[in-house]
Amino acid sequence: MSSEPAVGRGVGARPGRLVDATREPVNAIQAPGTPERDWIRWRGLDRLPRIAPPAAGGLVVVAAHPDDEVLGVGGLVASTSAAGERVRVVVLTDGEASHPDGPIPPAELAARRVGESTRALAVLSAGGPAVEIVRLGLPDTGVAAHEVAARAALVDLLAGYALCAAPWSGDLHADHEAAGRIAAAACAAARTPLVEYPVWMWHWAGPEDPRVPWARAVRMDLTDDGARRKRRAIACFVSQIAPPAPGTDDRVILPPDELAHFERDFEVLFR
Fold it and tell me: What pLDDT shows up at residue 3?
């Protein structure tokens, strides 16, 4: 997850309720968000068709930024690894733009985020095969300018895997949407099934929001162990859940009320 000037929500903003989810504000991600209690009270999430984790063949996860893979499908990664299957995570950027104009140089911030992602994926795969991590090093907030090259690289990285999970191409974040387009094109070329996972959608959308493809939505319930591992993995992203430089830069990308969307005991995917 990352902030971006043109599309992303401003860092440090505390989400509140998006009063009319059918009207998109000028910058939907920067607008106040939908509280988790509203999502949990909505019976639509409980009525979604249930699916089980993939049983065989391995999983490729595409992430726009270090942490998207854990927030969106950390439970799926944990379940796949626990079943003894291979998991390859392809991270398009190093997340250096999450705190623009902050006191931490972009290269140092990128190094922090890469380390957090590596530790988080180790938590998810403990007891199973180690997650293979491929980092493409594309510019944070600039993925769209590199879609052709990224698509070609991903086609090769999909070879031999049974399923790909990627950011939803309607997530209203430019990098997430570009990642979704890259994955869709690569999966079509490689003949690999694709599922999409939302990240920012939980912030800017609301129950029954017509912009969300609910007809394609499915729910994967996590095991107790999978849910615990996901929460522990999320806690690894200190740069996103705490101020990067307390007293100098107090901005927080993922305050507790935003994290609540990803600490559930289930995940939602679009097929």
Answer: 56
